[in-house]
Amino acid sequence: MTKIALVTGATSGIGRATARILAKNNYKIIICGRREERLTSLKKELSEFTEIHTLCFDVRDKKAVFESIHSLPEPFSKIDVLINNAGNAHGLDPIQNGNLDDWDAMIDINVKGLLYVSKAIIPQMIERKSGHIINIGSTAGKEVYPNGNVYCATKHAVDALNKSMKMDLNPYGIRVSAIHPGMVETEFSEVRFKGNKDKAATVYKGLTPLQAEDIADIIHFVVSRPPHVNIFDLIVMATAQGSATIVNRSL
Ligand code: NDP
Ligand code: 8X3
Asked: What does the alpha-carbon distance between residue 216 and residue 131 come to, in Å, rounded to a whole number?
């Protein structure tokens, strides 16, 4: 039977690559993000493979999150797979120089946004006693690095929420998985450095980083295991990366 997946942050990077792979693998997909024109063009691209529904909302906007998800038309209303992917880093400053707006953005998007979307969808999964939640964490949720402070804290929170969801949703047979990527070349660093493309490019200079498609492939693998198999916690790094701070720029 065709499954329905909802992907947050589908307008770019890992989320968009995930929507693409799931579309080619018989999922109906609800693609979410704030950039409506990108949602429209992705819908156009993927409609040759599957049915696509777009939801344009900011995950920080509690009301918009619940109204959007509760407004889903019947063919899309029963969500089998939720991919909590929307998120970004904003800034890379020592804690003493941190920008309060950056802190708010990261906490509101990466943690509270993930919680709002989950809260809007979990009740229907509980009712059906089935479902799968994929939380996109980060190696920054497993270790910290200089100047990573608040971003790392938000991804540690995602790691904790993933573990909590696994326990709390266990009685209902809902699968819960976290995927923690290392360096993936997406728009992530452009967002972190506020549109400075040159600075963003230096992050990946001289190494072969992960691509969004590498993570999307893994997400597809995780969601396509048989129902009794729950991959729970997965760290994925480029071969060139030894830790958050150790990168081999000759690979
Ligand atoms: P991108 O910047 O390419 O994509 C981020 C996505 O999140 C966009 O689709 C964006 O959509 C969406 N998003 C951001 N803010 C909001 C918001 N307020 N409301 C709704 N959607 C939002 O980055 P990645 O693909 O790399 O990031 C995806 C996830 O992967 C994030 O959670 C990130 O922390 C995580 N990650 C990334 C790594 C990397 O090195 N790239 C490594 C480890 C984890 P829009 O702007 O249209 O709203
Ligand atoms: C994104 C990867 O190394 O910038 O989560 O934290 S990193």
From this structure: 19
Indicate whether 155 belongs to any domain: yes
Tokens encoding 13: 């990077």
What tens digit of pLDDT does each residue of 102-127 get? 999 999 999 999 999 999 999 999 99
Identify whether 248 is part of a domain: no
Ligand 2 nearest-atom number relative to CA 189: 4
Q: What is the pTM of this model?
A: 0.98
Tokens of 195: 């549109």
Residue 224: how many CB atoms within 10 A of its CB?
A: 14
Greatest Cα pair distance, the chain, in angstroms, is 53
The finding on whether 138 has its CB within 6 A of some atom of ligand 2 is: yes
Number of domains in the chain: 1
- Complex ipTM value: 0.99
Within-domain flag for 247: no
Q: How many angstroms separate the Cα of 33 from the Cα of each of 38, 87, 195, 249? A: 8, 10, 18, 33
Report the CATH number at residue 72.
3.40.50.720
Substitution site in 29, 63, 188 for ligand 1 pocket (most atoms within 8 Å of beta carbon): 188
DSSP state, residue 74: G
Q: What pLDDT digit, counting tens, does each position of 17-66 carry?
A: 999 999 999 999 999 999 999 999 999 999 999 999 999 999 999 999 99
| Segments forming the whole domain that contains residue 82 | 3-236
- Looking at the domain assignment, is residue 30 inside a domain? yes
